[in-house]
Design brief:
Elements: H1 3-18, E1 34-39, E2 46-54, E3 57-62, E4 65-70, E5 74-82, H2 85-112, H3 124-147, E6 151-156, E7 161-166, E8 172-177
Antiparallel strand pairs: 1-2, 1-5, 2-3, 3-4, 5-6, 7-8
Helix pairs in contact: 2-3
Amino acid sequence: MTRPTMRCALLMAAMLAARPLGAQGLQGVSEGEPVRVATLDAGPRLYGVFVRVRNDTLYVRRDGETVGVPTSQVRGIEVRRERTALEGMGHGMTIGAPIGLLAGYGLALGLEGGGWDCIDRCGENRILTAALGAAVGAGVGMLFGAELPGTRWERITPRPNVAVRPVPGGGVALGLDLKL
């Protein structure tokens, strides 16, 4: 390293050591959004409203009080988001189709009666009615899902945490916490 480069590096390190860099924030979450935070201590998730990230601490408001969690202890963060009408339709269809299938099959089973009356065509009515029930259930689920899409939890990825601190005995320590 040349002498001017060394001086520049030392000056930069001294400026950074004077004020530690905190967490750079979270991409994809804004103040006031409902969040749930999973920590490394395997305890229950922290549910609340996102407040901010400052000096390597994530702040969440829960039950009227603000709780701080060190970002180094955060395993994952999920944000509660509204579904779009299209997502709601897909969600409604995935719920409505199996319910309609089972309802159609049960209806056909109840109406068929069983026994020796259906020797040649015993399962056809069940299959057709179950398929019709699945189609009706999917359609009704799509209608409800489009009208009432609901919400879902979306996992967000925190930005890397960078910290610079002076080391006893001289020098500077640089810490980078990057979760992949």
